[in-house]
Amino acid sequence: MNAELAIVLGSGLGVLAEHLQIEETLGFAEAGLPVSHVAGHAGRFVMGTLAGKKIIAMQGRIHLYEGHDAKSVSSGIRWLHEHGVKRIILTNAAGTLRADFPPGNWMMLEDHLNLTGTSPLEGGANFIDMSEVYSRAWRNEFLAESQRLAMPLHQGVYAGLRGPQYETPAEIRMLRTMGADAVGMSTVLEAMQAKALGMEVLGFSCLTNWAAGISSDGLDHADVLATGKIAASAMVSLLTASLSKISL
Ligand code: HPA
Hints:
Elements: E1 5-9, E2 21-27, E3 44-50, E4 53-59, H1 70-73, H2 75-82, E5 87-96, E6 106-114, H3 136-148, E7 153-160, H4 169-177, E8 182-184, H5 188-196, E9 200-210, H6 221-243
Parallel strand pairs: 1-4, 1-5, 5-9, 6-7, 7-8
Antiparallel strand pairs: 2-3, 3-4, 5-8, 6-9
Bound molecules: hypoxanthine (HPA).
Hypoxanthine (HPA) binds near residues 94, 184, 208 and 219.
């Protein structure tokens, strides 16, 4: 399995893989990676074509909250790097902290807050520059394409926490003060690992729910998955349009 472009699919977004012309699949265990048991995370690599471009989709991912460490959580990124990947799109499901970014919409990551308290780069004094984790040039391409498609695409800062519990309203107020626009339990460690390996990185949050305390509704993983499924089709259109234009 080998491709220059990869997409990591978050909670409920595995349906994106159904739009691939599949050539090969490989389970995480067969690839020598730890396996996730969270509902909505199948745990396999799928190689195929989307918009005529060869890509590897990582369907499901491994989380800190399952008891894995930062090295395990980022192992899929290193595997992809070993299999030729130079550009990577990370997707996730997230709660929105912004009244003007309602659930059901997508937010492209401008930057992140790594609040997991750990790093996949621990073990060496490598001091990697994190001033532009998410490629500005690539973001601009996607933004232009979203405008052509008349698809609402917000941009903001993603706060990555360990979980597994959702946040308290007080924690959400704190995150807002810290500059977060969306909150989730993944992506930041993978993005740091990909950046350290020299990959071009892009990140998208599917805003599946209001963060705690913002609306009177409670939070439920089933709602997160259901909203992800509905919003996935807009991302498929954006990816298809954007990828058909990039040269690999
Ligand atoms: N908080 C943290 N992670 C999430 C949320 C949330 O509100 N929604 C989806 N993943």
